[in-house]
Amino acid sequence: xxxICMYINANRFIQYAKLHRGKLDTYLYKDYLKFASVxxxxxxxxxxxxxxxxxxxxxxxxVQYKIHNKELLNKAILxxxxxxxxxxxxxxxxxxxxxxNMEALEDESKQQHNCxxxxxxxxxxxxxxxYFLRDIKNKDKSLVTVEVKHNNVVQSRIxxxxxxxxxxxxxxxxxEQNVLKGAA
Length: 184
What we know:
Elements: H1 10-19, H2 26-38, H3 46-49, H4 54-84, E1 89-90, E2 94-98, H5 102-112, H6 120-125, E3 129-135, E4 138-149, E5 152-157, H7 166-180
Antiparallel strand pairs: 1-2, 2-3, 3-4, 4-5
């Protein structure tokens, strides 16, 4: 009830619940109100505050909410990429770049059979940085997925979360020292 009252007052909620003869799914309604609020619906209007078919309207808004959140997440990731592209580093064999967008995170997960796409919110918020190590001659094919926190490589994995080879590790160590820690 407390969460519902963040969106509408208790008296209005009680009126709506009475219309449903006490059989209102309050959790579903709370989610519906959250979706409607985030999407900019005017909850002062009875049309939006009290949907006739709660399940149908909830499900419709859930899809819109998911799209809206993905768009916001992608915009935040694009901003992170712009801040981190100064850390792009390459040699004759490899290049390492920050994840540029949500689509790239999803592609990396697919290629590597890992869960890096689930790091999207942490990456977008700056809780961690995500980089992709590639062969300089084939920048579309994933080699190593790298997680960085506080300018330290905390995780580097190849396909199926295996460890990278010695050449990849040596490159990552050089990048970490010369670029992330600024020892160059």
